[in-house]
């Protein structure tokens, strides 16, 4: 005798059972977060965001994901869960540079931080960085694909107490990501060390040089920003964290590196992509 096919009501009961279990697990997750606040000392630091932990959680999610549910949805759900549990530990706002348009920045902010976290618009990156510097634990989002028109905003990150880059979004890169605008996340310097697989440096070049860009690429690095300044070019360079600033300086030498020291302005987890 073959089993009778389940009825619609049977299948809906299964869905209700799963939904209730998921909801109970989320509430249980909230209880763990409640205990974590004391262990982590969130109240003292005023900032709960741990980008290195989040990058590894998002990577694990992408690696185990299977089945009918699109990865976009699974990623979006967990972004909202993690961001909201960050927010309930210590409220923060997300400040976005919308000089290249509000829509992609709003999509990125909402996808990665949900709707509970306030979204504040700024007409340029320096104003985002100033807002972050004046806050206790806010995050700033600056677009990476605006070219020279955005100016050398990363120079505002120079100095020990100045905000720093702490993450690059999206955590899971892929073609057709629903919020795939490349964005750097800026915060006040983290109390605990963040991810350092990629370290970002601000430097001044005398001129543009293809040979320098090529040497940087051979080290596994890249120029992620450049903008003209009074004498030469201000650049934002990304370098694997295993390499030293002197290796960066040697790679950039064909471009006439100089005028001021190479300065670290932040770091983030290794970029991770799926598909494509
Ligand atoms: O692991 C932590 O430190 C947490 O605060 C928990 C949690 C999460 O909800 O999983 C929230 C915020 C952090 O950015 C990372 C992860």
From TrEMBL:
Known EC number: 5.4.99.5
GO biological process terms on file: chorismate metabolic process
SMART domains per the UniProt record, alphabetical: CM_2
UniProt xrefs under Pfam families: CM_2 (PF01817)
Recorded GO MF terms: chorismate mutase activity
Residue ranges annotated for the Chorismate mutase domain, each copy included: 2-93
Name this protein carries in UniProt: chorismate mutase
Taxonomic placement: Bacteria, Pseudomonadati, Pseudomonadota, Alphaproteobacteria, Hyphomicrobiales
């Amino acid at each position: 005798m073959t089993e009778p096919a389940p009825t619609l009501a049977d299948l809906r009961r299964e869905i209700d059972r799963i939904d209730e279990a998921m909801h109970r697990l989320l509430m249980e997750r909230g209880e763990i977060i409640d205990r974590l606040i004391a262990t982590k000392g969130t109240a003292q630091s005023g900032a709960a965001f741990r980008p290195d932990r989040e990058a590894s959680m998002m990577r694990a999610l992408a690696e185990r994901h299977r089945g009918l549910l699109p990865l976009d949805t699974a990623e979006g759900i967990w972004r909202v869960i993690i961001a909201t549990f960050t927010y309930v530990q210590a409220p923060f706002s997300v400040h976005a540079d919308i000089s290249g348009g509000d829509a992609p920045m709003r999509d990125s902010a909402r996808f990665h931080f949900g709707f509970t976290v306030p979204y504040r618009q700024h007409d340029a990156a320096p104003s985002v960085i100033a807002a972050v510097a004046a806050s206790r634990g806010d995050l700033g989002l600056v677009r990476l694909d605006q070219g020279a028109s955005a100016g050398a905003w990363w120079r505002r990150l120079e100095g020990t107490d100045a905000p720093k880059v702490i993450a690059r979004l999206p955590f899971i890169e892929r073609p057709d990501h629903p919020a795939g605008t490349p964005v750097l996340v800026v915060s006040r310097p983290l109390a605990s060390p963040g991810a350092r697989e990629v370290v970002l440096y601000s430097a001044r070049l005398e001129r543009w040089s293809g040979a320098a860009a090529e040497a940087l690429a051979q080290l596994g690095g890249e120029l992620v920003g450049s903008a003209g300044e009074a004498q030469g070019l201000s650049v934002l360079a990304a370098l694997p964290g295993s390499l030293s600033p002197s290796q960066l300086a040697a790679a950039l030498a064909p471009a006439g590196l100089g005028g001021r020291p190479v300065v670290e302005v932040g770091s983030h987890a290794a970029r991770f992509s799926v598909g494509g």
